[in-house]
Amino acid sequence: MSSLSATLGNNLSDEEVMIALQAGQDSALDELMRRYKQPLFHFVTRYTRDEETSYDIVQEVFFRVYNKAETFNPAYKFKTWLYQIALNLCRDHARKKKILSFVSLDSWGNSEDELSLHDVIASDENIESLAERRQMLELLESQIDKLPHNLKTALILFALEGKSQEECARILGITPKTVETRVYRARKTLLQKMSKRI
Q: Please, what is the Cα angle at 123 between 117 and 129, to 5 degrees?
């Protein structure tokens, strides 16, 4: 049997591909992996801050998608279900390893605020000010690591992953208003902690 991606391309929705997987078309899993492996890896890496661990978690996510395919309800968005599985595995990983640090700040803020090697070379800032900026990022990272899990997850999904409040709410199983509140509380907590350290 030829793969779904070869025969149908992007004509099927994620939910339709899952229905095909439920019907026993194993090639449907290949299509879902093609669509989501990279964004899911990026998402998980923000939690684990470890690419090897993230790779293992992403593999486990798709293993569970395959083994639990019959539990998926096509009335709901596949992407939300997929990210919930990933989120649960990240949480399990943190519990097992007793890791509190989930967030990578490599992409913190808007793209124009990011610090690349090219920016450093071309920058008029002296080495001391660049070192101070790096120290501030490290301090911020350590404070994010200490946030309660519910605040941290909302902050990651909304502020770092750029998902809408509605999508965050679906993934976390809460209301959009609760997402807004958690992100606000996370930012307020970080501001208070950072102001004491500066």
A: 95
